[in-house]
Write a structure and sequence with these properties.
Elements lengths: L2 E6 L4 H10 L1 H4 L3 E4 L1 H10 L4 E3 L7 H10 L5 E5 L9 H14 L3 E2 L2 H13 L3 H8 L7
Parallel strand pairs: 1-2, 1-4, 2-3, 4-5
GO molecular function: methylglyoxal synthase activity
EC number: 4.2.3.3
Family: Belongs to the methylglyoxal synthase family.
Length: 140
Amino acid sequence: MLNIAFIAHDRKKEEIVNFVIAYEHVFVPHKLYSTGTTGTRIMEQTNLSIHRFMSGPLGGDQQIGALVAQNEMDLIIFLRDPLMAQPHEPDIIALLRLCDVQGIPVATNVASAELLVKALERGDFAWRELVHKYKPGTAE
């Protein structure tokens, strides 16, 4: 079971909901997280259970970032709106930087999201399970 987060800017929320509906069967066995409104919208349209953090501008991006910093997140699907300025842009940049530091796969558009979810469906994320198994502080 992997930890997967969904984030979407306002004009991308419908797109992420449709994406998750299409791949709901892939997400069922995993632990799912999301920023507030995005998670609510996904849960209204699917049978998925999602742990929701605060809205992105209110700190939800940072809450997900805290899991990334601890290497507790395995995949992030973050549908960004590149044509709209975001008031919390520093939080977004910090989250993406943490993903780079920890080597966490992150998709920022539906094309890259689909490639990562297809890899997840094939079992190509087994390496993340090893990360959890051999995480410092865990008993062997």
